[in-house]
Amino acid sequence: MKNGMFSNFVLDEKKVFLLHYLRHRKINWATDTRIKNLFEDYEKVISDLKEHGYLRDDDHFGFLEEMGVADLKIVSKRFNLPSSGCKKELIERIINNTTPEQRANVCTDQYFILTSSGLEIDKEYIQNRKMQNANLKETFLQEVKSGNYVRAALERADAYSQMLVPLGIGVDWSNNEEIQNHSKSEQKRLKNYDFSDLNNSDAYKEILFQILYYDDEIEHNLFTSISKFINSEGERINCPDMEFFFKEKNYMPTETEKIFVYLDTKRFNEFQLGMQKTLKSEKYRPLPKGEFHISDQTIDFWKKCKEDCEEFERLSCLGIKGFPKTLQTFQKHKEKNDEKYQSWISVTS
To answer: What pLDDT score was predicted for residue 233?
Structure first.
């Protein structure tokens, strides 16, 4: 890491972590005790970061950074300023044409403000953390795919225990016995999931188990987790009840969507049964056989996304000048039904 302006100030790992923690935080928010305990004198560290050019005082403009473009345009109009331009332009225009007192009348909130140097340090920190998280997830993934569930848990615990402020309040990541017991408990819980409604091999059912374990323990995004285990060349999910369910909905889901709905339904039913047992209430009921945990609104959304994707792929092959490179950009113009979208579809007319 970089040194500060004076030899007795070192921008060490703890201070870099603090800069990241403070970004986007209001000054009047309470600071996590675990953060303060990293330093002998927390307030002096804040003062040093300002003195050495990594933080600066908020002259009632920090709240603007937290606003979206629509709200910034409203603020601009309040000060009789033009409301055109991108977010950066809107903020600069407001700051250059108003006083701190005027801005305080709009919003009294003040934030910790990172300087350009502070932002560069935070950018580097975020990149490093993303790389570390990606490496940890890949290690965890490969251990799970190999059936080494406890070893995966221990690898994660070792990584978490080395963090300045480990994830999970009250978890002792250095306690290997506790970590192993938790892993075994999770495996036992997931083994209770009933996959008897599938006409699939035991090997395929084991993959579904691995997806659930991986997602519960580290990924927390079921769609992403599924994509890490399932490929187009492998066995496909075979659930007659679900096939009939989607046929009634007049929708043919992708393989990933099928697995998502199937596993999400298993999770939902487990939760309902757990709440029913805990609260002694019949209000919580699992779905009956043949029903799945997916709303009509979500199915309609999937239908639209599928249609958009097919249209995007079809048009992208036509060599249309100025056609967007990403589906997301294409969808924005289609949603607005603007001139650009109309010009693209006119090519096929």
So the answer is: 85
